[in-house]
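Form P-L/3: holo structure prediction, ligand adenosine-5'-diphosphate.
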Amino acid sequence: MDKIVEISGLSKAYTQGHEQILVLEGLDFHISKGEFVSIVGPSGSGKSTFLNIVGLLDDVYSGEIKLFGRKLEDLGEAAKAVLRLENIGFVFQFDSLLPEFTVLENIEMPARVLGKGDPAAGLELLRRFGLEEIAGKLPREISGGEKQRAAMLRALRNGPALLIADEPTGNLDRHNSGVIMDDLRAAAGLGAAVLMVTHNEEAARRADRTLHMGGGKLNAV
Ligand SMILES: Nc1ncnc2c1ncn2[C@@H]1O[C@H](COP(=O)(O)OP(=O)(O)O)[C@@H](O)[C@H]1O
Ligand SMILES: [Mg+2]
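OUTPUT (holo model):
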């Protein structure tokens, strides 16, 4: 299987006052194309820290990371920025759609940033996930679950090889959590590697593999 992310010996410390807090301690990890991996673990164990590093939002760490077969240490800032925009999608717990734009316009944003805006393609994505009827609605006119699904489609708009979701159902009821899990499964079916942090055991079980964050490492559950 094609490896989308390969990590070995990843360590990360935060400095707080005079103290160094070691959050990740020689962690190893990999995920392949089309694979859906969930990460569970206590609050404060370093899950978001890990996702931010994998998603190129934080580059202060030690260890080796390969994304899409390329060593990050060989890439400059500009190359990493392009890699992130073109290949990585993010969904967070409290995702915000831009309130003055329609759902379709929100979904088109990441494509427009790359100069590849095409409302027909955005609409096709909505259709594929059964959401075409909310295309023209404003965020305040749809439900919380629909907002999170729209944010997820926005993350999928550029066809990312890697979809990173940090507690995507943290704010949703059981029904909508299940719908989001179906969507993430479908995203993996379209070929994305899906990496999700969750507190929801039922959600975690929907993944192909579940890992536990603890002691600065990821271990199979
Ligand atoms: N920017 C930061 N500066 C200092 N410490 C941080 C920072 N971000 C997170 N931490 C600390 O790192 C640890 C891991 O945090 P985090 O990755 O957010 O955990 P999780 O997502 O598993 O709840 C926590 O002890 C947190 O307080
Ligand atoms: Mg977190």
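COMMENT: The pocket of magnesium ion (ligand 2) is lined by residues 47-48, 166 (CB under 6 Å).
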